[in-house]
Design brief:
Strand content: 15-25%
Distance between the termini: 59 Å
Strand order of the largest sheet: 10-9-8-11-12
Radius of gyration: 33 Å
Oligomer: single chain
Structural class: alpha+beta
Number of domains: 5
């Protein structure tokens, strides 16, 4: 009873103050003449006590200022483009120079190459663009207005597309409306069109037409009835009978539910087109600016780097001799990774590296690099991170060698500073000729897996390679699409593969489940693994392990993106055993010379389901030997590696039925 009593006293009260991120109100005199104000502790910004509706009711005017990150991307891209143009003795360009009918830009948009293009990069938008094939700026404005839940659910988008391509007849509710509705193929898309219809058919003033638009948007029954009477009366004066006027009003009312502000849509479409134009004409500069804006979001960086590769752009690893804080375009087809995108490298360290480079010039080797730096600002952990991220690769020494000699290089650098402080310079104050003992420690290179593992730890992604690359030939037999293509496969069965880069588990009513984050170098994707499938496959679900998952792609109501409902899971070994037709071993020496080595490799893995075929060829003949059934094997990665290391073996590979190897 006490709880209910207290709850009733709170009922109807505002739970907390909600603030619009870009909302501003103005008044002809002091704001306090109209509303009470308050200011949170530690904040200087004033906020109105009244909510958004009451603010308008007391006579204040609201503005919504949208601060778009994309505007910064465009500005940075334009500056970079003009630097390149200056080098090529070309005049600088401005945004006004962008031709809104540019064919190259529309070709890029029509091909759905709109990753990183403002408002056009979601999978749903790409589906609409694919059907619409916009070829003029009016179409761009319309597609931004139409891609919202209301129009999509009402069928307006399909009508618009069918009429644009001439597959559906364009019908105007009245001949006088042709001029108003012609740009949108007879479909009422914008709020401004509702206002124009009221002006043309019912002689509404601009103010009255705006009141009609507001009434339709707010769906106030009494106000709508009043507006209908006004519209009918005005239409009758223009020779339109009441029945037709009511029919047109009903149509306006229906479309007003979804009508979008054209000025808003046009502004967004302009920004969309500008980003698409830069991507079409200056892709390296544009994508470098986009990467810089998103460099703290590793999943976005992965997608953007995959897009760079698709556009045949080279993304070079970070380099202490050329990288700045941000991603930079070094040429029209090359982007240099930014030092600021390396995890654990602070602004102060990057500024010190930049200072040393500007003062000294090119760093020739590890010792030269350490000697040029203030090692209080760039400590050993930072230097180790730079090495593992590949930022010293161009010094001609592999990463393991750099790591092994780092302490020595730092010690020698410190010794040189002490010598300098003690006055042990030459006559001209130079210490370049000081006789410092440099004992280079020789070590073996990291394995490919170890190098990539360290790289991912410090970059957050695989840049110079990917653990999946070694399986590329085999994976082509299993997968139906890459992770980046899953969005376009909604409603279909898919088979995907990826490295588990993160996994979290949780308990549900039906048992324990896991959520995997997969990476295949084209994108990252989260995959839920529900309890039954998780329990039967949890031995396969480990970080840094490659898995192949078959399931159905669909819409994710929670994220608004795409999800894959997993139905089957394999690792590479179980996929080989399940789907390979045979293990084929090609010899480069006589069979007699190979028997002992082959027997030693195959004996421990007998009892599998994969037949073994041995190909042999000499000067006189060629033969394929099918081993007996008792020699069927489990074709693991370890077995393939062992066979391929035998001196007598040319190659050992699993083969697959081209018609039906894929898991789905």
């Amino acid at each position: 009873r006490e709880l209910i009593s207290r709850a009733q006293s709170l009922e109807g009260m505002a739970r907390n103050a909600g603030k619009h991120a870009g909302g501003v109100v103005i008044a002809p005199t002091a704001l306090t003449d109209f509303t009470a104000l308050y200011c949170e502790q530690g904040v200087t910004q004033m906020v109105t006590h009244l909510d958004m509706k009451d603010v308008e009711a007391v006579g204040l005017v609201k503005f919504d200022f949208l601060g778009l990150r994309t505007l910064t991307i465009i500005d940075n891209t334009l500056k970079t483009v003009n630097r390149f143009r200056e080098k090529n003795a070309q005049p600088p360009m401005t945004l006004d120079d962008i031709d809104l009918s540019d064919k190259k830009t529309f070709k890029l948009i029509q091909a759905c190459r709109t990753t990183a293009v403002f408002q056009l990069e979601s999978s749903g938008m790409k589906d609409v663009i694919k059907k619409l094939q916009p070829d003029n700026f009016n179409d761009m404005v319309a597609v931004v207005a139409l891609y919202r839940p209301g129009p999509l659910g009402s069928g307006m988008v399909d009508t618009f597309i069918e009429r644009k391509h001439g597959r559906e007849k364009i019908i105007y509710p009245h001949p006088l409306l042709e001029e108003i509705l012609k740009p949108t193929y007879g479909v009422i898309v914008y709020q401004e069109q509702v206002m124009q219809i009221a002006q043309v058919l019912a002689s509404f003033t601009l103010g009255a037409a705006d009141m009609l638009r507001r009434a339709m948007g707010k769906k106030i029954a009494e106000e709508m009835a009043k507006q209908r009477e006004n519209f009918r009366a005005g239409a009758e004066k223009n020779g339109i009978d009441a029945r037709q006027a009511d029919s047109i009003f009903d149509l306006m009312e229906e479309f007003a539910k979804y009508g979008f502000n054209k000025s808003h849509s046009a502004a967004y479409a302009l920004v969309s087109f500008q980003t698409a134009w830069f991507k079409a004409h200056y892709p390296a500069m544009f994508l470098a600016s986009t990467l810089s804006a998103d460099m703290e979001k590793t999943d976005k960086v992965v997608t953007l780097i995959a897009e760079c590769r698709d556009m045949e752009l080279t993304v070079q690893p970070p380099d202490v001799n050329s990288s700045g804080f941000s991603f930079e375009a070094s040429s029209e087809d090359t982007i240099v990774y930014g030092l600021g995108a390396i995890k654990g490298i602070g602004q102060a360290a990057i500024e010190e590296i930049t200072r040393a480079r500007e003062e000294k010039g090119h760093f020739s080797d590890l010792f030269d690099f350490c000697r040029a730096l203030d090692l209080k600002k760039v400590n050993q952990r930072t230097l180790e991170t730079l090495i593992c991220a590949g930022a010293l690769d161009k010094m001609g020494v592999h990463r393991a060698g750099l790591m092994a000699n780092l302490s020595n290089a730092m010690s020698l650098s410190g010794q040189e500073l002490r010598n300098r402080a003690a006055g042990q310079d030459d006559l001209f104050g130079s210490s370049d000729e000081l006789d410092l003992d440099i004992d280079w420690i020789e070590v073996a290179e990291y394995s490919e897996d170890e190098r990539l593992k360290r790289e991912k730890k410090h970059l957050g992604l695989y840049l110079t390679g990917h653990p999946m690359n070694q399986y590329h030939r085999e994976l082509c037999n299993f997968i139906s699409c890459s992770l980046s293509d899953v969005e376009s496969a909604k409603g279909k069965q898919v088979t995907i593969a990826g490295l588990i880069i993160a996994m979290r588990t949780r308990n549900t009513r039906r048992g324990r489940m896991a959520i995997l984050t997969l990476d295949d170098q084209s994108a990252w994707l989260e995959i839920p693994i529900y309890s039954e499938l998780y329990e039967s496959n949890k031995q396969l679900l480990q970080e840094d392990r490659l898995v192949i998952i078959s399931g159905k792609a669909g819409y994710d109501d929670f994220t608004g993106g795409t999800r894959v409902t997993a139905e089957r899971i394999h690792d590479m070994d179980s996929a080989r055993e399940t789907f390979s037709t045979d293990l084929r071993i090609t010899l480069k020496k006589k069979v007699e010379d190979a028997v002992e080595g082959l027997q030693a490799a195959l004996q421990p893995v007998k009892g599998g389901s994969t037949p073994v075929i041995i190909d042999y060829m000499n000067e006189e003949a060629r033969a394929s030997i099918h081993l007996p059934r008792e020699w069927c094997v489990h074709p693991s990665a370890r077995l393939l590696d062992e066979l391929n290391k035998l001196p007598v073996v040319s190659k050992a590979v699993c083969e697959y039925d081209a018609a039906g190897a894929r898991m789905n």
